C-alpha cells in the first residue's frame, strides 16, 4: 500500500498532498483526470518544464500569472511571440524568469502548431503513448517510464525543448494518461472511473 495522508474531510489522499494545503484541491479536482483539450495539454507540459529544478508548489502558486503572461497557453498566439515579448516576460515577477524556459515555451508553441498540422491534435498524438495495463508500475514508485522516454524522444526529435522523460512522466500523471493515485487514496477509483468513461482521441 502506498503512503497516504488524511485530507480535510478525514479521507485518505496521496501523501504528497501534505506538502502544501493548496495541493488537496489540485489533487482532488485535477490530478490524474484524463484530458483531451489541446490548450490544457500544452499548458501542463509547459508548466512541468518550468517546474524542472523547482517545486510544483511554486509553479501552482504562479499558475494564473503564467496564464496571463502566455496568452492562456493558446499555442497559436504564443507562437507569434517576438524577442520583445521574451524580454517583457523576463521582467515579469509573477512568473519564473528563466530565459531558456521562456524561449522553450515559444519554441514549443511553434512545434505544437506543426504537430497539430500533422496529427490533427496534440491529444491524438499524446494519447498514443498511454501505457497498457501490463506496463503499469505500482503507483508513485517511478519518475519515468518506457512510455515517457518514448514520448520525450519523439518530442525532442520534432524540436521540442525542456521535455525530458521525468518532465513528460509528470505530465502523463497529471493529464490522466496513467492513474498514479495511491492504492488507498479515495480518489484512485474516481479517476479510474473517469478514465473508463473517457473517449480516447482519434486522428
Automatic annotation (TrEMBL):
It comes from the Bacteria. This is DNA-3-methyladenine glycosylase I. InterPro entries: Adenine_glyco, DNA-3mA_glycosylase, DNA_glycosylase. Coiled coil: none annotated. SUPFAM superfamilies: DNA-glycosylase (SSF48150).
Amino acid at each position: 500500500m502506498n503512503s497516504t495522508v488524511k485530507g480535510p474531510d478525514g479521507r485518505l489522499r496521496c501523501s504528497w498532498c501534505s506538502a502544501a494545503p493548496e495541493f488537496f484541491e489540485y489533487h482532488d479536482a485535477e490530478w490524474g483526470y484524463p484530458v483531451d483539450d489541446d490548450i490544457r495539454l500544452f499548458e501542463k507540459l509547459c508548466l512541468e518544464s518550468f517546474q524542472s529544478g523547482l517545486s510544483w508548489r511554486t509553479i501552482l502558486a504562479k499558475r494564473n500569472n503564467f496564464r496571463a503572461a502566455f496568452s492562456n497557453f493558446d499555442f497559436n498566439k504564443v507562437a507569434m511571440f517576438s524577442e520583445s515579448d521574451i524580454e517583457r516576460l523576463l521582467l515579469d515577477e509573477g512568473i519564473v524568469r528563466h530565459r531558456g524556459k521562456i524561449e522553450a515555451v515559444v519554441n514549443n508553441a511553434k512545434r505544437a502548431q506543426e504537430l497539430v498540422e500533422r496529427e490533427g491534435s496534440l491529444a491524438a498524438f499524446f494519447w498514443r503513448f498511454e501505457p497498457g495495463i501490463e506496463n503499469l508500475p505500482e503507483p508513485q514508485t517511478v519518475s519515468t517510464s518506457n512510455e515517457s522516454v518514448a514520448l520525450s524522444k519523439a518530442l525532442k526529435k520534432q524540436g521540442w525543448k525542456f521535455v525530458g522523460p521525468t518532465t513528460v512522466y509528470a505530465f502523463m500523471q497529471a493529464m490522466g494518461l496513467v492513474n498514479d493515485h495511491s492504492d488507498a487514496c479515495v480518489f484512485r477509483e474516481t479517476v479510474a472511473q473517469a478514465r473508463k468513461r473517457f473517449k480516447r482521441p482519434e486522428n
